[in-house]
Amino acid sequence: MKDFLSSLGLKEENTGTSTGRNFIENKSAKAITSHTPSDGSEIAKVYETTKEDYEQVIKSSQEAFKTWQMMPAPQRGEIVRQIGLKLRKYKEPLGKLVSFEMGKIYQEGLGEVQEMIDICDFAVGQSRMLYGKTMHSERPQHRMYEQWHPLGPVGVISAFNFPVAVYSWNAMIAAICGNTVIWKGSEKTPLCGVAVQNIIAEVLEENDLPEGIFSLITGAREAGEWMTTDKRIPLISATGSIPMGKQVGQTVAARLGKTILELGGNNAIIISKEADLEMAIRAIVFGAVGTAGQRCTSTRRLIIHEDVYDQLKERLVNIYKSIKIGDPLDSDTLVGPLIDQDAVDMMQNALKKVEEEGGNVVCGGDVLENMEGHYVKPAICEVENHYEIVQHETFAPILYLIKYSELDEALELHNGVVQGLSSSMFTLNMREMERFLSHRGSDCGIANINIGTSGAEIGGAFGGEKETGGGRESGSDAWKAYMRRQTNTINWGDELPLAQGIEFDV
Fold first, then answer.
1. Does the annotation mark 262 as catalytic?
2. To 5 degrees, how large is the angle CA 342–CA 462–CA 245?
3. Are strands 483-491 and 142-150 parallel, antiparallel or unpaired?
4. Could you give the 3-state DSSP secondary structure of residue 4?
5. How many CB atoms lie under 10 A from the CB of residue 447?
6. For the chain, how many helices (H) and strands (E)?
7. C-beta separation of 107 from 117 below 8 A
8. pLDDT, tens only, 128-150
9. How does DSSP assign 277-333, residue by residue?
10. What are phi and psi of 319, to 5 degrees?
11. Which of 185, 348, 373, 481 is deepest in the core (most CB within 10 A)?
């Protein structure tokens, strides 16, 4: 075992079910074998959660909620603060694990752990700011106000591309709100879940907290279905594809549960003829090839003014030819592997469809057969926005170039997809900036000027519109999604006046 794996408490065989401080040993369960996409070799095994194990997790979470919700919110914040300190201690090995198991380069792995640390810091502050409003009552000697209460066990279903950060966005905010948390990570990155749970378990143990505050289950689709159909879990926060999100949304809605859905993106950058092209190029390349194009905020479409189109295309093609592709733990690498062979095949099929629909693959797209692992060259394609393949998100490093002549046309192209997550415009023209950010501009949940589509920071609410799901996480007032609102009225007088002046004498 590599040193960074053992330092995180990982072994050749690991249990994937935990009620917080302890793992449920069940080696009769089916095992998931984790492979590194860097060379396809086996890392370790993780045993899936059985239905019996799941029931134990649910009962433990429900029982812990009775205690956890009664702790003052700042005390809950103190526990989250300590989790942030532990993450600082384990930042290097956990960042390496994220890189090794998922395939993103080491700097991005470290960045993902830093996001966890940042959300812990944010949540600690938020634990003292769970504010409600007071309102003036129309009735004399009455006081009216609202307050917020925790929901209970909250379910978090996260995806492989951010195997630790997105969990923490939800878990740390949900926890300071008084909820317990049950996490099902991706079956493609199960070791990341076990490692994070080991880190959190240290804090729970040191504070003598009960089982069930932070729990982990491991498995594929069936485990997710247990959660989405379970009335004992009032909120499901799910990150993944649009088809997955639609299924989760329908299932949870059928039992009148709550959802936070963070689904696909088809993110575009508009490049004005008045853009700072040097700045834009750096943002484009990072957004398009970072994490090998496997972010929900990856730059998929580049909508370029005709006056700078050829110049920008030539610059990007030259840069793409020199991008270092290889081992994600090598400090010189800029692009690591795709997660698995299915992702490689999906990219190749998308490139074929580009050509079938009349587009042109300008450069890249090759599978690097001479390298062990799932490596491809990032691709640039010239397309029309209405192509079917362009309308769908391909989770791979494919950048589509689209030409425009007038700003209204650019905005129509930009908004002409079903997804609505992240967006950007590069321009030094103030009127163009304001138009892009106005109600007649970008229809996405995130809209940026002179920065790229990826790299959202903690503090701003993260999420999108349309088929991206409409959920919000990790900042602003996103904490309200993890709580239930209650309006309270107190009559401190000696009469019983009714609202709206209604007379009702008995």
1. yes
2. 45
3. antiparallel
4. helix
5. 17
6. 15, 20
7. no
8. 999 999 999 999 999 999 999 99
9. HHHHHHHHHHHHHGGGG-STT-EEEEEEETTTHHHHHHHHHHHHHH--BS-TTSTT-
10. -65, -45
11. 185
User: CA–CA separation, 124 vs 104, rounded Å?
Assistant: 29
186: left (phi over 0), alpha (psi -120 to 50) or beta: beta
Q: Is the dihedral of CA 167, 157, 226, 43 positive or negative?
A: negative
Q: What are phi and psi of 136, to 5 degrees?
A: -80, 130
Backbone φ and ψ of 46, nearest 5°: -130, 130
Exactly one of 262, 393, 432, 473 is catalytic; which is it?
Answer: 262
Are 267 and 298 within 8 A, CB to CB? yes
Q: What is the pLDDT of residues 414-436, one digit of tens each?
A: 999 999 999 999 999 999 999 99
268-449 folds as Aldehyde Dehydrogenase; Chain A, domain 2 (3.40.309)
Q: What are phi and psi of 107, to 5 degrees?
A: -60, -35
Residues of the chain with pLDDT under 50: none
pLDDT of residue 455: 82
Percent of the chain with pLDDT over 70: 100
**Taking the model in full, what pTM does it have?**
0.97
Q: Please give the structure tokens belonging to residue 71.
A: 């702790």
How far lies 436's CA from each of 52, 265, 426, 463, in Å? 52, 18, 10, 18
Structure tokens at 70: 């009664």
Domain ranges of the chain: 3-263+469-487, 268-449
Taking the C-alpha atoms of residue 193 and residue 448, their distance in angstroms, rounded to an integer, is: 32
The CA-based diameter of the chain, rounded to the nearest angstrom, is 89
Neighbour-count burial for 48-61, b at 16+ CB within 10 Å, e otherwise: bbbeebbebbbebb
CATH homologous superfamily of 3-263+469-487 equals: Aldehyde Dehydrogenase; Chain A, domain 1 (3.40.605.10)
DSSP 193-262: HHHHHHHHHHHHHHTTPPTTSEEEE--SHHHHHHHHT-TT--EEEEES-HHHHHHHHHHHHHTT-EEEEE
